[in-house]
Specification:
By secondary structure, the chain is an alpha+beta fold. It has 13 helices and 35 strands.
Length: 552
Amino acid sequence: MTKLRNRIIIFSILIIFLFTAVCYGATGTEYVRVRIRYPRVSNEQAALKGYGSISVYEINEYPEELFNLDSNQVSVQLDSYKYYHIELSDYYNSYEKALSYAEEFEDIFGDKFYPYYDGESFRVYAGFYSSRNDAGSLLNQLNKNGYDAEAVNMGYKGIVVYNEKNKPVLMFDNSTNLHFTSYYDKESIDMIMIDNRPYRGYMGFKIIEERLVSINFVELESYLYGVVPNEISASWGKESLKAQAVAARTYAIYNKNPRALYDMDDNQNSQVYRGYNSEKESTDEAVDETRGEMIYYDDKLIQAFYHSTSGGSTESTENVWFESLPYAVGVDDGYSDRSGSPYNEWQKSYSKEEIIKKLKDDGNDVRELYSVEITKVTENNRVVECIFSTDIGEILYKKENARLLLGLMSSWFDIVNGNVYYFTNEFTYLNENRTIPSRGGGSIGSGILDNIVDAEEVEEEIEDFKSLSSGGIIGKSVISSNGTSKITKDTLSVISSKGITTLKTDSSSYNFEGRGWGHGIGMSQYGAKQMAEEGFSYDEILKHYFTGVTIR
């Protein structure tokens, strides 16, 4: 099919749909570009397999078929910068003409000739030579026979396609937007396999930082077929699946970026997308039954964040990242608590050496760790500030950065041991029935520093712990009759009204207890599951987690 014929057909389709498309624009179809990292096994090449002959499309504003490869199995490879090729000067208006001339040249001169596409027209290239000198023999033969040719090096701008017989059948420039697909009769769709995993739509390639990157150009609803079952269990209630479909659709369209080479990754960096083999009937139905629906605030698409388990409350964006979003504010989430999520509560332990390594890996020249202390939390219980006391001083991590550094499931966490202590003042009284806050106290290596006063001298009991401040001991200074000195010993003895108490000051391990999984922003997936089980509709689920929104 020629470019001219394709343009006529596409133009006709545009006219037909101009007055009927309502969801995604003139053609009624929205595409997204997804970088496929899985199951890619190489940064230099990828294996493509079709359900018939492989078709090559050029995709700019819309897919436009250029030609077919006489093969259903090819290898797409990064052209090495070490190779030189011979470029013949003549231009051709189709792949078929360039291929025909390449075969004639091959019969005459006996080397490998193949079509090359630069985005505008086709030429004939020859050979893979390690130097210009190696290309000299064939170049001289071509010149003697009246052909204008020269040796060229593509650098990292060339991509080569080989057939199953390891013969080059196409080279194209990295600046082009060539994509590959085939027709799958069973589903009546365009689909192709990359490294033996099938994907709907078209598979394209770009060279980024000397790597061959694969990009799936796929219709939005088809993309969602491969996302929803990988982000939420397909066995959950229909309304929770529909809520996930609407959130994922909104997230995808919000994150489209025409100025970038692709819109999203296929992993947790964006949304988990595993293609055709991962699709399930229940999630396909959820996508179909909400087709085109997205979430809006003040008539604008929202950033539809979601996470696994909230732990009992979601969080406001400014407490996790920086920007305050009026529709993404913390809400109470008893649904998540009742959902039976295995991530409602969790524990994680690190040795002191492991935390030191994490600090070093993050660019801190640390050799010793004295304490880890949480100094500020949000009203929704998530850590806002966490201080690591070290031999180079106190290192402050804020918001989500503390969780990411420690590799914890959420930023809703406590430190249940380690050498963090709570300091009292002379008006604080702790009776036998009172326990100290879980954050930093109540375990081996923690304790209350008593005042040197008698209980009888305290006139009233403080009803809360606001008078308590927390902190690490090692590295601090103490004033005594001998002057000021820094606390460095492994233990510390404290004189109180109860006598002498010995405290450990060199904890070798840190145990963290927390709730939830993920950043805590937006929709809790386990919460959505529970809401569906309790009879809520998908739009009610979304409006619970996103404040003041509409779904349309």
